[in-house]
Amino acid sequence: MSRPFDFSRLAAPVVYGPFTSESSVKIQRLMWECTPDSRYIEGADSTTSFYMRNGIPHEVLAPDGKTWIPFKAWMLHFCRRLRRAHVYPPQNPELFGGVYDRGYVSFWYVMKNRITIQKTLASMTRMCVCKQMNAFTADTIGPNQRFEEIIFTLFGLQYSDDDWFGLPGFITSRSVRQPWLEFRRDYLESHPFEPNPCWGTIQPILANPRLAAARRAAYGVGLPGEVYVSDKQHWSKEDHACRFIITLYNMAADRVGTEVDEWRPNAIFSSTVSLDFSDRHFFGYGLLNLLTQSWQFNQKHPSPLYEEYLTPVIYQGFKPHFFVFPHLDVGKLDLSSQTPWNTEKPPIHFNAEEARDAGLLTDDDVFDFEEDESMINIHP
Questions:
Q1: ∠58-63-64 over CA atoms, to 5°?
Q2: Which helix (H) or strand (E) covers residue 134, if one does?
Q3: CA–CA separation, 320 vs 312, rounded Å?
Q4: Distance between CA 292 and CA 298 in Å, rounded?
């Protein structure tokens, strides 16, 4: 499906590496000109494998467009051949003489970094969405524990008593209700049981300050009085999710709705400081998933309080029931050489072991979060 704005247009221009081999140059051209297809291998352990759980393909289509090869082989034999000039920070020419202008970086290192980021975002998505699903269906936890685990999916460990008492009122405020009703009308009601939006797609769009103008053009700002005309016919679920989060944060930062006046407006909505999950927009993403699951659950197990509360699951009288939610979607690893190259890993502040010690994660959850990408044996 087409997108309202093609963010891949911001990719850097193609620069070929210092190769003389005709076959190497041909492979580079083929890899530059297209994004390779990829696939999973169906099997007994395919759904639980490190690959599928984290959106990493088992096989990639080789540059010849005919041969399917293991992901590891694609990394080792094709990504390592593709290079481009490395852009270094400016140095003092009197001391360094331009020596830092002559380096090249391999696409292999770029892909290794993407694997790390994809795995981290997949783990965060799984932790958030699955814990929220469990809150609707598990009858082995009490209402206080259920509410605490839901708050944890929004804030990580950085929550306080103010969040405990302020969240229900905030969810029913205009700052949440308006963007939620728009998301529900424009997307969810026509796609009632689609999987969750992919955090790995949303996060780079919202986190990059250089995309501010593009975001406004694509998604507007969501404030009252906004003159915003956009054809959403070809929007993806991630586009609708971006619109929801942008509107939510702008309305809450501007204190639209008296219910949010005293509830964490600076820590989440106005500041650029990240919360425990390393990106301040993860609160909005987690809240959208909670609202979506509440709506889906209400279709099967309707509550007379739903339209008033939007999330009856966080209230004392909620009764869990069996329900099959849509499958979890963690997104897929970006294999395109046209996407801007980056080898810097973002800092991750979340401490899974501390969350386990607080009783909010299990040992399996900690292993899932901390499992290293080297498990797929990608080595130079």
A1: 110
A2: helix 107-137
A3: 10
A4: 10
Strands of the chain, DSSP E: 38-39, 59-61, 68-70, 83-85, 104-106
Tell me if 117 is assigned to some domain. Answer: no
- Same structural domain, 28 and 144: no
Which comes out higher in pLDDT, residue 73 or 92?
A: 73
Q: Are residues 85 and 229 in the same domain?
A: no
> Which of 112, 137, 153 is the last residue in one of the domains?
112
Whether residue 119 lies inside any domain: the answer is no
Residues 243 and 108 in one domain: no
The answer to whether residues 342 and 113 touch, using CB atoms and an 8 Å cutoff, is: yes
Tell me the mean pLDDT in the region 117-123: 90
Q: Are 68 and 140 part of one and the same domain?
A: no
State the total domains in the chain.
2
Distant-in-sequence contacts of 216-221, Cβ < 8 A, 24+ apart: 217/5, 218/4, 218/5, 218/242, 219/4, 219/243, 219/246, 220/246, 220/247, 221/246, 221/247, 221/250
Taken in order 203, 205, 206, 211, the sign of the CA dihedral is positive
For 214-282, give the DSSP string. Answer: HHHHHH----TT-------TT--HHHHHHHHHHHHHHHHHTT-SGGGTTSSIIIIII-----TTS-TTH
Q: Is residue 118 part of a domain?
A: no
Q: Please indicate, yes or no, if residue 1 is contained in any of the structural domains.
A: no
Is residue 345 a contact partner of residue 117, using CB atoms and an 8 Å limit?
Answer: yes
Query: At 378, which amino acid appears?
Result: I
Across 55-59, 271-275, 345-349, 375-379, the highest mean pLDDT is recorded for 55-59
**pLDDT grade for 1, boundaries at 50, 70 and 90:** very low
Domain final residue, candidates 80, 112, 144: 112
Give the separation between CA 55 and CA 121, rounded to whole angstroms. Answer: 10
Average pLDDT in the 22-33 region? 55
Average pLDDT over residues 41-61: 78
Q: What is the DSSP letter of 105?
A: E
| Domain range for 370 | 124-375
Residue-wise pLDDT for 141-170, tens only, equals 899 899 999 999 998 877 777 777 788 888
For residues 183 and 240, is the Cβ–Cβ distance under 8 A? yes
